[in-house]
Design a protein that fits this description.
The chain is of the alpha+beta class and 327 residues long. It contains 13 helices and 6 strands.
């Protein structure tokens, strides 16, 4: 039995039951693919369910405010995904229909090669092979490929191989089978080689290189950044601002993030020190303070006063949520 046929047989028995697999609606499938970028299925699934419940059509999502979309996205991280999702919904509405070719899907904001191939194959059964971390791992191990997957040469090699293996007329099932196989069977750590249906022909298992593949070149340097947040509480109100472009958390809201000149007799209460928050290539270390002045102090440009009880109406980063939890 061929590689593809073996995977399809495995998928019939072991494939995951997921709600977006019960439909061919491209909106629901596109939504799942954007949410699951950089996100585990068990974390992303409730977000997908809330999005389709609140905005059941792409027109509903396009008509929403960006603040509402960001607030519904809160806790998932990588907030540019939410902004791109909202922008792409408006693109689709302007087209008058969901794009049905690989090239047109690829033109949507926030959609890369992998996401376009996933939507095209799953929603429209177009012959487009997906290549993500699971696919890199399965193919590199099975075929014993040591070309680094995060190089241009590696990306081209694996993309060509994945496309050549695509069985005719079964792109949707095959792509999902390959992704599930990498997530459930050929896992990054402790792969289940003993009961693998491909064990007899797997090059990595034969040569004892399962733990060495796939190969990656050295990672980008992780940097640290320090932040100081001051939560102002004054007669039932607090001060926040919306973060602008060109930095982390664009469009999200945060409390005062600089130490103010305190009036005589005023003091800050340290709530938490050195709270660690990890982003992709950056580690944030934050100090949280509480300031309770008798009168509203002047604020730097860009800040507004809101009632404390209304803070839940604003989309905030997870790090700021930690601040609110310790008040």
């Amino acid at each position: 039995m061929s590689f593809a046929a073996t995977l399809l047989e495995w998928f019939k028995i072991k494939g995951r039951a997921l709600p977006w697999r019960e439909t061919r609606d491209p909106y629901a499938i596109w939504l799942s693919e954007i949410i699951l970028q950089q996100t585990r299925i068990e974390q992303g699934r409730p977000y997908w369910e809330r999005f389709v419940r609140r905005w059941p059509t792409v027109a509903d999502l396009a008509a929403a405010s960006e603040d509402d979309v960001l607030r519904e996205w809160q806790g998932l991280g990588y907030y540019s995904r939410a902004r791109h999702l909202h922008a792409a919904a408006k693109q689709i509405v302007a087209m008058g229909h969901f794009p049905a070719t690989l090239e047109d899907i690829r033109r949507l904001k926030g959609v890369g090669d992998y996401t376009a191939a996933a939507i095209a194959s799953i929603a429209f059964d177009l012959p487009a092979a997906v290549v993500d971390g699971n696919v890199y791992r399965v193919l590199s191990r099975y075929y014993g490929i040591s070309t680094p997957i995060n190089t241009t040469a590696g990306k081209h090699e694996f993309a060509a191989l994945a496309q050549s293996l695509l069985p005719e007329g079964e792109a949707s099932a095959y792509n999902q089978a390959l992704m599930d196989f990498g997530a459930l069977q050929c896992t990054p750590q402790s792969p289940r080689c003993a009961d693998c249906p491909l064990m007899e022909t797997c090059e990595a298992l034969r040569s004892g290189r399962t733990g060495e593949l796939p190969v990656k070149q050295r990672k980008l340097k992780v940097t640290e950044r320090r932040l100081t947040y001051i939560y102002i509480r004054c007669n039932g109100q607090t001060a926040i601002r919306q973060r602008g472009p060109g930095d982390i958390w664009q469009g999200l809201w945060e409390p005062l993030c600089c130490l103010p000149d305190l009036p005589a007799g005023s003091s800050l209460t340290l709530l938490r020190h050195n709270v660690r928050h990890v982003l992709t290539h950056r580690i944030l270390l934050a100090d949280f303070y509480l300031w309770e002045p008798d009168e509203r102090p002047p604020l730097p440009d860009g800040y507004i006063w809101i009632d404390e009880q209304d803070i839940d109406r604003y989309a905030i980063p997870r790090l700021v949520q930690l601040l609110l939890e310790c008040l």
